[in-house]
């Protein structure tokens, strides 16, 4: 289905902002499109400052949690960090472990097995930790919906501290339901209704703030010891990795941590971080948000998807240099297996959508289930199915009568609310508006599918299902030079809430015959002209457009400008996201 191009209207204030900040009008337009029209705010976005981070004590629950953990350290109580198995959880657990380890705490971590235990805190794990002598359990990136496990921890005499950023369960009248425990959460108001200024902080971000507060508490000063200071610098790298990987909006405090986190990763003293960067073939490179999203994060995620993420935490915490390298090599193998498995399941899922009629105009949501699917990779596949069909998608892996599901959504369809409406059909659920998970009895999949379809029909219009492409500006080829590309790079890191800038050309002519390239002939290489300037472009995965381009000879392209270095020469090229052809 052709995408609708939504090109931002030219902003009348772009020239003024460009003059004030000494930037190009193109960058000024992009800043406006991100909601940054004030010169001071725009300047702060282009040059983030660590000093603009909010004090950790402003985060609801942090001051009390830091005091409790510091007290547990001083009293020698056994602390266990209970984390999620994704990148956000892995990095968050690692941050808190390093902080407590430096303090001399008796500290361990527990990461549930994704395939055997599923998401979140479970009662069996609490029982196991109690038997092993845990006196304090602090969760990272999970726990806000752990009502029964919190009750069990209290019965067993375990001090239970929850740090999370996922949506809490609510009653039918939208009253928030929290576990009986101390909760540290950026999105839940404090007593008196005061809210934290950054409700979009990720799990690793919350762990960073708690670790910072613990360090201050143990040092009994806002100025921490040199050892804690070096730890906090390394911890920005882990926090930035978790923030970017978890696709939380990259603005405000999140942008500051992501920005400095990239530099923190490059300069990290942690053997596990160095090994991960080496395994991803990024040593010596200037890291970008793309490198995290498509190279570092998938390798960390792979071990959690294919088995147990505890090994990834081991690499980022206790492992020495040699052991970290071995673990990183294992992650590499797991990632390749994950990729092969993901491709097979994606092909099956896309065929199943059509075979079950869930791609018809009358159906606005997709629910798929199979006993042949691996629960660890269905979330990634759900993203692809959602992108392919423009519909919210739930993928369910069935095993021994129980289904584990992962879901991805589109605008105007909040998954955690929809799952709440369908809770009678589910064993458990949790997550966000755009990504969520569930557990279900295999016998109830059909009735859940019917309920999900019903909610999609009520909440979504046909217009919501039309794929669209947001474009920042229309830019002539003559304006595309190295200076502009380098200037746009000041917007890094890119991610949710701050996507890589995308532009559109005017109508262009084909300057040379298009070439189908790539190992499997899937990509398209073009050379285009407006009659005055020329530009080369690469369109990944778009070889299907070659014949139409040869026939019509004219097109517009939506693109991201990139620098391509070849034989010592650097040229601006177009990384093409879409084509438009004359009708």
Q: Count structural domains.
A: 3
How many helices? The count is: 20
Number of strands: 22
Average pLDDT works out at: 93
Strand proportion:
15-25%
Can you offer a commentary on this structure?
42% of the residues lie in helices and 20% in strands. The chain has 583 residues and is an alpha/beta fold. The strands form five sheets. It has a five-stranded parallel sheet with strand order 3-2-4-5-8, with helices on both faces. It has a five-stranded mixed sheet with strand order 9-10-11-13-12, with helices on both faces. It has a five-stranded mixed beta barrel with strand order 17-19-20-22-21. The relative contact order is 0.09.
Q: What labels would you give this structure?
A:
583 residues, alpha/beta, OB fold (Dihydrolipoamide Acetyltransferase, E2P), inorganic pyrophosphatase (n-terminal core), Diaminopimelate Epimerase, Chain A, domain 1, 5-stranded parallel beta sheet, 5-stranded mixed beta sheet, 20 helices
Write the layout of secondary structure elements.
Elements: E1 4-7, H1 14-21, H2 25-33, H3 39-46, H4 62-74, E2 78-83, H5 87-102, E3 106-110, H6 123-131, E4 136-140, H7 147-155, E5 159-163, E6 169-170, E7 176-177, E8 182-184, H8 203-219, H9 226-245, H10 253-266, H11 271-279, H12 289-306, H13 310-316, H14 321-355, E9 366-370, H15 378-389, E10 393-399, E11 402-408, H16 415-421, E12 428-431, E13 435-441, H17 445-459, H18 462-465, E14 468-471, E15 473-474, H19 482-488, E16 503-504, E17 508-510, E18 515-517, E19 523-529, E20 534-539, H20 546-552, E21 554-566, E22 569-580
Helix pairs in contact: 1-2, 4-8, 5-8, 5-9, 5-13, 6-7, 8-9, 9-10, 9-12, 11-14, 12-14, 13-14, 14-15
């Amino acid at each position: 289905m052709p995408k609708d191009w939504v090109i931002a209207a030219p902003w009348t204030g772009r020239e003024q902002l460009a003059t004030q900040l000494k930037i190009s009008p193109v960058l000024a337009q992009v800043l406006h499109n991100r909601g940054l029209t004030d010169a001071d705010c725009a300047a702060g976005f282009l040059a983030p400052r660590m000093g603009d981070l909010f004090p950790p004590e402003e985060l609801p629950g942090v001051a009390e949690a830091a005091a409790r953990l510091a007290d547990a350290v001083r009293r020698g109580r056994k602390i266990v960090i209970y984390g999620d198995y994704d990148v956000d959880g892995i990095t968050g657990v690692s941050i808190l472990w390093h902080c407590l380890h430096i303090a001399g705490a008796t500290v361990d971590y527990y990461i549930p097995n994704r395939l055997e235990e599923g998401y979140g805190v479970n009662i069996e794990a609490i029982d196991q930790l109690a038997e092993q002598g845990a006196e304090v359990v602090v969760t990272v990136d999970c726990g806000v919906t752990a009502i029964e496990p919190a009750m069990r921890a209290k019965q067993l005499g375990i001090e239970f501290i929850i740090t999370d950023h996922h949506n809490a369960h609510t009653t039918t009248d939208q009253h928030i339901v929290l576990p009986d425990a101390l909760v540290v959460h950026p999105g839940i108001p404090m007593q008196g209704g005061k809210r934290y200024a950054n409700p979009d902080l990720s799990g690793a971000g919350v762990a960073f703030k708690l670790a910072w507060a613990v360090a201050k508490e143990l040092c009994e000063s806002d100025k921490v010891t040199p050892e804690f200071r070096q730890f906090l610098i390394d911890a920005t790298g882990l926090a930035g990795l978790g923030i970017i990987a978890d696709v939380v909006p990259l603005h405000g405090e999140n942008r500051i941590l992501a920005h400095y986190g990239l530099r923190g990763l490059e300069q990290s003293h942690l053997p596990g971080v160095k090994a991960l960067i080496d395994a991803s073939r990024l040593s010596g490179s200037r890291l970008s948000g793309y490198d995290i999203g498509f190279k570092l994060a998938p390798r960390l995620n792979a071990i959690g998807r294919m088995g147990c993420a505890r090994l990834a935490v081991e690499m980022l915490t206790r492992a020495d240099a040699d052991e970290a390298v071995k673990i990183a090599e294992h992650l590499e193998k797991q990632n390749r297996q994950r990729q092969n498995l993901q491709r097979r399941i994606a092909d099956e899922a896309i065929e199943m959508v059509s075979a079950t009629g869930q791609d018809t105009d009358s159906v606005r949501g997709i629910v798929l289930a199979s006993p042949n699917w691996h629960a660890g990779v269905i979330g990634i596949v759900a993203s692809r199915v959602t992108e392919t069909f423009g519909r919210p998608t739930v993928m369910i892996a069935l095993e021994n009568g129980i289904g584990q599901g992962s879901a991805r959504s589109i605008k105007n369809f909040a998954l955690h609310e929809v799952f709440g409406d369908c809770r009678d059909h589910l064993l458990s659920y949790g997550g966000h508006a755009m990504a969520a998970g569930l557990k279900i009895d295999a016998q109830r999949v059909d009735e859940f599918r019917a309920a999900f379809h019903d909610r999609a029909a009520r909440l979504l219009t046909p217009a919501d299902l039309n794929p669209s492409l947001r474009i920042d500006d229309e830019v002539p080829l003559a304006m595309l030079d190295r200076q502009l590309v380098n200037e746009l790079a000041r917007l890094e890191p890119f991610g949710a809430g701050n996507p890589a800038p995308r532009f559109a050309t005017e109508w262009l002519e084909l300057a040379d015959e298009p070439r189908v390239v790539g190992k499997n002939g899937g990509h398209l290489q073009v050379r285009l002209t407006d009659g005055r300037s020329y530009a080369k472009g690469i369109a990944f995965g778009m070889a299907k457009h070659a014949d139409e381009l040869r026939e019509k000879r004219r097109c517009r392209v939506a693109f991201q400008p990139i620098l391509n270095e070849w034989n010592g020469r650097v040229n601006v090229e177009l990384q093409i996201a879409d084509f438009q052809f004359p009708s």
